[in-house]
Amino acid sequence: MASILVFSERANLASELLGKAKELGGQMGLEVAAAAFNPADAEAYLKRGASKAFYSDQAELKDFEASTYAQALAQIAHKAGASLILVGSTRRGKELAGRLAQKIQAGCLTDVKSVELKEGKVICVRNAFGGATEATQVITTQVQVIALMPRAYEPAPEGVKKGEIVTLRLDLKPSRVKVIKRSEKDAGAVDIQGAEILVCVGKGLARQEDLKMIEELAQALGGLVACTKPLATDLKWLPESRIVGLSGKIGKPRLALCLGLSGQVQFAVGIREAKTIMAINTDPNAYIFQITDYGMIADLHQAVPQITAAIRG
Ligand SMILES: Cc1cc2nc3c(=O)[nH]c(=O)nc-3n(C[C@H](O)[C@H](O)[C@H](O)COP(=O)(O)OP(=O)(O)OC[C@H]3O[C@@H](n4cnc5c(N)ncnc54)[C@H](O)[C@@H]3O)c2cc1C
Fold first, then answer.
1. 25: number of Cβ within 10 Å
2. Best label site of 82, 244, 247, 259, fewest CB within 10 Å?
3. Domain residues of the chain, as ranges?
4. Ligand 1 centre and the CA of 291: distance in Å?
5. What are the tens digits of pLDDT across the range 168-185?
């Protein structure tokens, strides 16, 4: 039976893709399969509704390497009879999607925010013109590779395992990439993309020392500190891994608190999908107020300590 194949190097993201794949599979009459390179993930995907988990434990697949993973997924896609392949649109996933599509002669879209079936076509929505607008696009090849952004959909709920694990021996050519060195991420590197609560700060912050009060507020809220691009690249007050927006991370937090930042489109695209957006800015005409649910016209240096104190009770 033809299928939708799901893969992400992040198991939680694969679970989100599975949720959407099951819905599309129901509408398109396609079985839903998942690919996994460790046994725990394979089991987990079956519990989340995949009817098959294609699994390989070959040494070449132990660590992510895009060209090797693309070879593996091309063979799995063939085995699964996949006409639609959903990949997680992470930095790695996007490279993988392109390589995979080239191998199997499929059309490919990355950074896709949503997919819906309309009149038999899989309609993809992506940001366009730096996030100023949205583009609706359709892949016209028979096989489609779509990289869906994290948090676009809820994870498929866990239930009783019904499907089967299909263990494969894949024909993998040695990678032409040689890993020379692995280094730890910088100490400040955190997953702002997956954060539920983001406290974003911009150039309205007067001094680097004032970051302490931003961190205290984030801590009180159980969130993470993120920033606008100039705060990281020009002022170097925070690592670049904290940048929100077009050149940084695009997330879908429950709450995005925007402090002393203007809300230019290149930033706003990173938090626009947040459930609730709140901003504090001294300028009542700041762009950010055009997308906020709640706004406060105030000096953040006065407001933030008071809000933190109120939360702490
Ligand atoms: C190709 C390209 C890609 C880009 N990618 C990104 C990206 O990914 N992310 C990103 O952030 N930017 C990006 N930018 C830059 C973006 O266009 C803006 O320049 C940037 O987001 C502005 O940062 P900011 O809001 O911190 O600073 P500003 O625009 O200078 O805004 C500072 C704000 O703080 C307010 N303020 C000042 N003092 C206070 C105070 N005491 N209390 C409260 N509010 C105060 C001001 O009223 C103002 O609204 C990109 C630009 C380009 C060209």
1. 22
2. 247
3. 3-167, 192-312
4. 15
5. 999 999 988 888 988 876
